[in-house]
Amino acid sequence: MFKKFILKNLTRYASKWVVLAIDLLLVLLSFFLSYSIAYNASLDFDLLAVLRQVPVVFFLSIISFLTIGSYRGIVRHTGTKDAFNVFMAATLFCILMLVIASFNSLFEFSKPFVIPKSIIIIHYFVSTFVLILSRFLFKAFFEVLSTELEAIKTVLIYGAGDSGIITYGALNGETKNNIEVIGFIDDDLNKIDKKIDRIKIYSPKSINQAFIEKYEVDEVIISIQDIEASKLLAITDRLMDLEVEVKIVPPLSKWIGGALQFNQIRQVNIEDLLDREQISIDNPIVQREVRNKVVMVTGAAGSIGSEISRQLSLYDCQQLILLDQAESDLYNLQQELIQKGVSNFIAIVCDIRDQKRISKIFAKHIPDHVFHAAAYKHVPLMEESPYEALRINVCGTKNLADLAIKHKVERFVMISTDKAVNPTNVMGATKRIAELYIGAVSKQHPKTKFTITRFGNVLGSNGSVIPLFREQIKNGGPLTVTHKEMTRYFMTIPEACSLVLEAGTMGVGGEIYIFDMGESVEIFKIAKRMISLSGLKYPTDIDIQITGLRPGEKLYEELLAYGENTIKTYHEKIMIAKTHQDFNQKIGTTISALYKNVSSLTDMDLVKIMKNIVPEYKSNNSKFEKLDLTKEKSI
To answer: Torsions phi, psi of 544, nearest 5?
Structure first.
């Protein structure tokens, strides 16, 4: 504790001015030492005359240090550059002393202040050596002290139940890490103030800033099995405010051989803090449905498509057909599956907009199931390129759906987005149009079971806010948030893909499946949590910059459109959206006409047609807002 106090205060108060003061003191001591060396380690010199010379030495040394700036380096990180700066300062000091000594000898300004040149030269070598040596001695002192302190972590265990006791045992059994458990935290009134192996149990209310500072707590390990996400969020938020590192013990099912290992205790990550229960979907039905079947995945190299491919590779498919136009990403997925020993797949570089190419692939491989994940999804980019958004999200989907009907595909699952609900941007509107087309052809061709999955943002996906924040933190910030009140629904990539695979086995066709994603999460709060989880402070270390809504962006997303309700399925977390809009043949015909004419229309004309197909599409913060005004005036 005492060593930690020393290091903490040295680090805090050892400013450049303290370094300058120490340097000045060492220069003066070196001056007296120089006289002693010159007189053969005796004191047979005029001490009073030497004391009169001290102000000159003091004044010139200040000028030298301030001019070179040798005192500005961080002593505990001293390197060759700092040593060179000290050498330059000592050299400048020596030159100034020699100049004054020469003038004094010529003009005899003041004999009491005459410093022999031999003393100046001796002092130059002595002071240079002493100053550089002191730098490295201080550095070594900090390193020794820091090394000892790093090995001693002061830890609290949150949870005094069986899991907490096992965690305590795992920490004590780890010989390589010198960890001191100073207490347990538990909200059970019957346990508070009692002791486990002489370690006191504290109430959560007693863990405040004063407690953390008094006992110099470095880390809190949350060891509560089956903890609710909302409770974990509340605990973590409070602990992060106290500026301690927060870790968590994995679920019992993940303990190695039924025993907790020290290296399994990990840092809390943002996926743990979604303020919602993580949903795990068991898929025995999926395994039965895809066994000995040819399964095609479009957009297979993307975030969702690649995870669907990974999960499908665990089942007994006859063959996996993985399609994507992103050559490098598809190659990476191919190599990943090969390394895992998967052999029943083929990776094909292709563009779903190319009808002839896709047609040949369908004819050659005759897929039984299609999981359609290929899409353009970046809202601001698609707002500038409606043609590209339509070509991929609508025309590409139409190509695949038509070929699925032609080749009698059993099931076709389209992956949509919550941005298709009451869209405010081109991307969301194109996905809604694709939903409408799938619904229309599903009614006309019931032999192929078309289904749609609709969900929010996935953590870690390409373009997701989480990887962006991680990169911004890595670069020193600031984190960029478009609006302080912006909220989004989140789930993990494995969850999203489990939903997609489950949807591929449900219903009779034409359904839109939505996911119970819990409460929406404020993006600003996620940014603050990620800063804290990185061991940094907001706003002192990294700030958050509000940049304003981007074209087509809205403050919050919805999973249901106006007038839509939900119907329960056999799984409590999966529901069917009961849409108010009829998937009729007229919609299919309108979309087919758009498909034929998309290349000959301007962006403004394309968006105007999109707004006619999707009446609820109202542009937000976009150049296409004037189309809504024109439409309102005509009404």
So the answer is: -115, 125
